[in-house]
Design brief:
heterotrimer; A alpha/beta (456); B mainly alpha (307); C mainly alpha (308); A: 456 residues; D-Maltodextrin-Binding Protein, domain 2; B: 307 residues; mainly alpha; two-stranded antiparallel ribbon; 2 strands
Chain lengths: 456, 307, 308
């Protein structure tokens, strides 16, 4: 027994009609539209807004994902800050990853409550700059009495673009060469990291010879684990890179870059001494599935705990390549910045807070709790070294770091595209040159459509 | 048999009398809060989304450019469309087929009076109520080719583990397995409910006529289950096309597992920040969902057996 | 096609009513003919046990993992049982996350959201089936289409709206956008259509108004379907992640799944895995308890429905 109301094309049109009624409701929020190209972002004063006569707000909000399980130590620092300045800081968990914080921040841009201080990773701050949603910090830091020259130069310079400073370093890390000391011993190798990738290519067969079944001398970091970040090391060593230094000139398909990635591919398919991690190379190292890998300094303490005496972990500088031996270590991790769309009083209080959050004392306390690098030159690192001698290597390596390639950190989605291309090379044995040419095309398209129109 | 009341209500042309007005008022009282909420929080965003899909808009940016249908054009002419639509089709067909088939088999077992079936029924339904995030987490630990328990078992058998997270095909297979694991209990329990309603006299009659269990199932039980099958088909297809949590937790890059739904997420929030393009993909997904439903409802009209 | 012929959730409602003689017991009532012991084992217990194991083992594995050390979790050799089982992971998890507060928030949000949604679903479905109104089919169609809107779509517009209304970091801000219920309305409408109309007609003749009929007749005899809707609703509210993440700011309103993220470390700290598993269990257990409670109604209802 059926009635005769058929769901026909006409009924669907009817539905669309019903929708028009609701369209009026949907007007609020979202972007304003133009028919020309997007707006340039860098039209502001490179020193940022002026804070003459501005009194700092009494209460601010800080959005963090607590990198390195840093919530407890951040709260301690906040307490001291409040005690010394009278400004209270509301610490907000804005997600577990930088992507989630970004999602929340960008949603808030579309109309909502903005934080006064926000954390962002290396690949995010430039987008906020192009989207015109953060302020240059020079004036703010000055008004807050923060001395910028005490920040480690390389880490501080990471946030410079168009003559302005867009963030200060906070939870910063670099990649580090990790190795299994007992495997090293078994293979009769000197107790240090290899100086160059060529040297490691000589060592690797020896390691492989003493390796157990299914074990590799080396594991390339997992593709979902920011593969584009650590690979810069090999690319730079070979004189290549994702893009030319401080430029959007994509160079991932030059002879040097291709040679570097050919080395990576050969380590898997020809030398057969390297694998690719599925989830996390540092986990695999801790589990004894590989003798060496490259991972973030932030993983150091966790690895030591997980190894739990099964073997000794060694660390060293990242190996160099045939063209460049140093600097071949990219910086990484996160910084903090101040949104644009909030009151000057809040921006000033925020500047005071980020100065305090990263002052020599705080940065040491923070490093101690998390394994991130101290970001100040005048920080007293002796307590860190006493607690964990391996951290000394990581800190020393900070002197030989290099600012990351624009192509990776400034192009939205580039990191994902790089990981996908590398995946083809190391898991499907794709032709390196071809994969890189196609990557270049993709990256250039991202640049022309999404970045260039927003640059002044 | 079911809709005589509603049918009658439609057939009787309502004359607007006070009694009918009262009915209308009551209808408003009962139904309009829900309808208003749906308009406000489902339809309004849907339309906003369609509007966004005509923009070249970087998420977080306060300005955007109207580009008409360019986003759609880009999707369908670009290299993405074939892969994404293919992945979506494979994922949907296998997860829907897998959970329905296994659910049906499981239901036939659960329908027998076996000791412990209450416990079994609760167990198989349990994954359905768990969060995708938690389930994804557990299974990544299981599938990990180095430290996972699956790899450990394979090693004991002298075998190597597949590289689940590296090979696109394997990643898709893995996510499909977990998705079916999570959802087959839903199908099983609903099939079970339907089977318990099958008239026993019918089955006995079939047995007396000498029909074996397979024959009985094919010619008596299965046709009686067809309304349930169509209900399940509709809801599981909707679910599969909108699957998200598991894919995001297990394969964040979407290497081999980028379905339409996940692509919409990746394009807006996964690093690309292309809010307009993402909105276009979401709109395409919506149209597909709508089309699937229309087709199913029409087939349903023609095919379903009602006793 | 006729929307009215769409099958309801439990085909108890569509398939012919069963005249099962409940007092007549059979050793095995699923198969036909006389089952042999071997047949019962091979065709019954074996697949039953297998399926139960496949479903249960991953969950058991997670529970075991939460009692292990990170070294035992991160091992190439399968460590079946923790050597020194300890609650260390749980205590570390609870030192990082204010579980009691988050549990309270989740409970409030889930309870408020589910109760309102179930009530709205019942009233809407009742109105759609039993109350006279023009263009009811269109309204139903509109509700059905709402089922097909991907959740991704509503995130940004709803955030803008709720934030504009001052709903950031409030309970109502978490609950409100999800209150409109298409799924529950859909299920209950299909179910109501299948109810024996004679009962309702009799009640109408006796002078019972709509509200009486709804509360006294329709709701009581629909317990299994309502319990199903309640279960699905509770599960969704409890497990919701992205929306509460975006709309809440701190512990005072944050829900459990969001709090779970506090246990994750972006730097991939391998020593945190047992803690993550412990956290996941804390989130999962309450849903399982609710499920264990509700499923008795659902299952009891299923057999009841078969007798009616």
């Amino acid at each position: 027994m059926t009635t005769h109301s058929y769901l026909s094309r006409r009924s669907l049109l009817g539905l669309a009609g019903l929708g028009v009624g609701a369209a009026a409701l949907s007007a609020c929020g979202g972007p304003s539209t133009t028919s020309g190209s997007g707006s340039g972002a860098a039209s502001t004063d490179p020193n940022g807004p002026s804070f003459d006569g501005v009194q700092p707000a009494k209460q601010i909000t800080f959005w963090s994902n607590h990198p390195g399980n840093s919530e407890a130590v951040t709260r301690q620092i906040i307490q001291k800050f409040t005690a010394s300045t009278g400004i209270t800081v509301n610490l907000v968990t804005a997600g577990s990853t930088y992507e989630e914080v970004a999602q929340k921040f960008q949603a808030a841009q579309a109309g909502g409550q903005l934080p006064d201080v926000v954390v962002f990773s290396d690949v995010w701050w430039f987008r906020y700059y192009t989207q015109n949603s953060i302020i240059p910090l020079a004036n703010a830091l000055k008004a807050a009495g923060v001395d910028p020259t005490d920040y480690r130069d390389g880490l501080y310079a990471d946030y410079q673009y168009a003559g302005a400073q867009w963030a200060v370093p906070w939870a910063r890390s670099t990649p580090l060469f990790y190795y299994n000391k007992s495997d090293w011993k078994k293979a009769g190798l000197p107790d240090r990291a290899p100086k160059t990738w060529a040297e490691f290519a000589e060592w690797a067969p020896k390691l492989q010879a003493v390796a157990g079944a299914g074990q590799h001398a080396y594991e390339h970091p997992a593709l979902a684990d920011y593969a584009g970040w650590t690979l810069q090391n090999i690319l730079w060593g070979y004189g290549g890179g994702w893009s030319k230094k401080d430029s959007f000139d994509i160079t991932c398909d030059t002879d040097q870059s291709v040679a570097a990635l050919q080395y990576v591919q050969d380590s898997v398919y020809k030398g057969k001494w390297a694998g690719v991690s599925n989830k996390s190379a540092t986990d695999d190292l801790a589990a004894g599935a590989c003798s060496a890998t490259i991972g973030s300094t932030g993983s150091l303490v966790g690895i030591q705990k997980a190894v739990a005496g099964k073997f000794q972990v060694g660390v060293g500088f990242l190996p160099g390549g045939p063209v460049s031996q140093s600097p071949v270590c990219p910086t990484g991790g996160a910084g903090v910045g101040i949104p644009k769309g909030i009151k000057p009083e809040n921006q000033l209080a925020a500047a005071k807070f980020i100065g305090y959050l990263t002052n020599p004392e705080s940065t040491v306390a923070f490093s101690q709790a998390t394994g991130y690098m101290p970001v100040r030159k005048s920080a007293d690192t002796s307590s860190l070294l006493a607690a964990n001698p391996l951290i000394g290597t990581a800190i020393k390596q900070l002197d030989v770091t290099r600012t990351q390639d624009y192509a990776r950190v400034f192009l939205p989605g580039a990191d994902q595209e790089m990981a996908k291309s590398v995946a083809q090379i190391v898991t499907q044995q794709a032709d390196v040159k071809q994969a890189m040419s196609s990557l270049k095309g993709t990256l250039e398209q991202i640049y022309t459509t999404q970045v260039k129109p927003h640059l002044a | 048999m079911s809709n005589a009341l509603a049918g009658a209500a439609v057939a009787r042309r309502p004359r607007v009398s006070p009694r009918i007005l009262r009915e209308w008022a009551l209808f408003g009282l009962l139904a309009f809060p829900n309808i208003a909420l749906i308009l406000m929080f489902v339809y309004r965003p849907l339309l906003t989304n369609v509007y966004y899909s005509t923009l070249d808009w970087t998420l977080g940016s306060s300005t955007a450019r109207v580009i008409g249908l360019d986003n759609y054009r880009e999707f369908f002419t670009g290299p993405d469309a074939a892969t994404v639509l293919g992945t979506t089709a494979i994922f949907t067909v296998t997860t829907v087929g897998g959970s329905m088939l296994l659910g049906l088999l499981l239901a036939t077992v659960l329908n027998r009076r076996l000791v412990g079936r209450t416990f079994a029924r609760a167990t198989v339904f349990a994954p359905y109520v768990l969060s995708g995030v938690g389930v994804g987490l557990v299974w990544t630990f299981i599938f990990d080719p180095v430290t996972g328990v699956l790899a450990g078992l394979l090693r004991m058998a002298g075998l190597g583990s597949p590289q689940w997270f590296l090979q696109p095909d394997l990643s898709l297979t893995m996510v499909i397995i977990v998705y079916v694991w999570k959802n087959l209990g839903y199908c099983a329990v609903i099939y079970l409910a339907a089977m318990q309603a099958v008239d026993r006299d019918l089955l006995e009659a079939a047995a007396i006529d000498g029909a074996g269990p397979v024959r009985t199932f094919v010619s008596i039980v299965w046709p009686l289950l067809s309304p349930t099958s169509f209900f399940l088909l509709l809801t599981t297809i909707l679910g599969s096309l909108q699957a998200f949590d598991l894919i995001r937790i297990m394969t964040p890059l979407g290497n081999g597992t980028t379905t339409l739904m996940y692509d919409a997420y990746l394009q807006a929030f996964g690093g690309y920040n292309r809010a307009g393009y993402s909105a276009a993909i979401a709109t395409i997904l919506f149209v597909i969902l709508l089309a699937m439903t229309v087709v199913q409802l029409r087939v349903l009209e023609r095919r379903v057996h009602y006793a | 096609m006729s929307l009215d012929t769409m099958p309801p959730l439990a085909a108890t409602d569509v398939a012919p009513p069963v005249r099962r003689r409940r007092n007549r017991r059979r050793p095995d009532d699923g198969g036909v003919g006389r089952p042999t012991l071997l047949g019962t084992i091979v065709g019954g217990y074996l697949p039953l046990a297998l399926a139960t194991l496949i479903i249960a083992l991953p969950l058991v594995w997670m529970v075991l993992g939460s009692f292990k050390t990170s070294g035992e979790v991160l091992s190439q050799h399968v460590v079946l049982l923790p050597h020194h089982p300890s609650f260390a992971a749980y205590s570390r998890a609870s030192s990082q996350v204010n579980f009691p507060r988050l549990f309270l928030n989740s409970t409030i949000v889930t309870a408020a959201g589910s109760i309102i949604k179930v009530v709205l679903a019942i009233t809407t479905a009742y109105a759609l089936v039993f109350v006279r109104f023009p263009a009811k089919k269109w309204i139903f169609l509109g509700i059905l289409v709402a089922l097909m809107v991907p959740s991704q779509v509503s995130l940004l517009p709803n955030y803008v709206l709720i934030a504009g209304m001052g709903g950031v970091n409030t309970y109502w801000g978490i609950v409100l956008p999800g209150l409109g219920t298409a799924f529950g309305t859909f299920l209950l409408r299909q179910h109501f259509l299948s109810l024996p109309k004679e009962i309702l007609e009799a009640a109408e003749i006796d002078g019972a108004g709509h509200l009486t009929r709804m509360m006294r007749i329709v709701v009581p005899i629909s317990t299994p379907t309502i319990a199903t809707v309640a279960l699905v609703t509770i599960v969704n509210e409890w497990n919701d992640y992205i929306w509460p993440l975006i709309i809440t700011n701190d512990d005072s309103r944050m829900t459990l799944p969001v709090g779970l993220t506090l246990l994750k470390n972006v730097e991939g700290d391998p020593s945190s895995y047992p803690i993550l598993m412990a956290g996941a269990i804390v989130v999962i257990v309450p849903v399982l308890v609710v499920f264990a409670f509700l499923q008795r109604y659902i299952v009891a209802g299923l057999t009841q429905g078969a007798v009616k």
